[in-house]
Amino acid sequence: MSKATRKSNTRLRKKHFSNDKLNMLVDTLAAHAEEINQQNLKREVQQRKKEIWEEVARNVSAVCTTLRTVKDCGVKGETLIDMGAGPCTIQLLSAANSFNEIIVADYTERNCRELEKWWKNEPGAFDFTAFAKRVCEMEGNRQTWIEMEENLRRTIKQVLRCDITKCNPLAPIVLTPVDCLLTNFCTENVCTDEKSFCEYLKNMTSVLKPGGHLILTALLECTVNIMGKHRLPSFPLTESFARIALIDTGFAIRYFKVLPSTDDSPEPLTDHTGILFVLARKEL
Predict the structure, then answer these.
(1) Which domains does the chain show, CATH number per domain?
(2) How far apart are the first and last CA of the chain?
(3) 136 contacts 148 by C-beta, under 8 angstroms
(4) In 3D, which of 241, 200, 235 has the Cα closest to residue 221?
(5) Among residues 23, 31, 39, 119, which is most buried (max CB within 10 A)?
(6) Is the full-model pTM beyond 0.90?
(7) Residues near 143 by Cβ (< 8 Å), separated by ≥ 6?
(8) What is the per-residue pLDDT across 169-210, written as a single tens digit (0 to 9) for each?
(9) CA angle 66, 91, 241 (to 5 degrees)
């Protein structure tokens, strides 16, 4: 091999070596950058989860306060239905002491499955311990949170699908009219205008017997709910229209209260101005 050829091969090896090192360096930097991005994303997700649960906790406390007020009004009976329950049961912890049986209903199959997992204490069920402890504190610690949860599990008798846009929201099931209907943040997030709000309210409350009670909580003047990347529209319900709708549907209002919104987070999940709490008796 000539001297010129050896020099050429040496330069070529050095060039290849240099390119290999450069590629390794680029790959290492890219992996490090991806790791940093993932860490930042994880922190953002954790912060967002914290904000979401703080909002949930505020709403839970508000709902529990209302249910305590309802209890003070002597609302009790044989059967309560929670319609539009979502995947949650914490709103029913107090109610389990006032009714002999509870039926939980929601529109989506996924939510119903989550409800069943908690009800049957299956592996993978969501852990509501922190919220149950909060409810216990608000109830004066007359029961432990474990006793409260077990009492609710015993009181729940059915988990059903529902669709409040139908005349019989539990179709094809037809139930004997019940003593109490509980619905939280449901109707205003399904309807599109005043007419459909009244229609869906009438559909839901068709499950109530005359003299039965409606317990309703709703977001006031809310136009959007933010769920991850999704922006879900909401009907901007007002206090005055809520009163009219209830009276026109045949209810006598026993308790009507508005809790102003205290959500000052930089990225709120809704744009509501307050939460409405209603206890009403079915007259017709």
Answers:
(1) 60-282 (3.40.50.150)
(2) 108
(3) yes
(4) 235
(5) 119
(6) no
(7) 136, 151
(8) 999 999 999 999 999 999 999 999 999 999 999 999 999 999
(9) 50
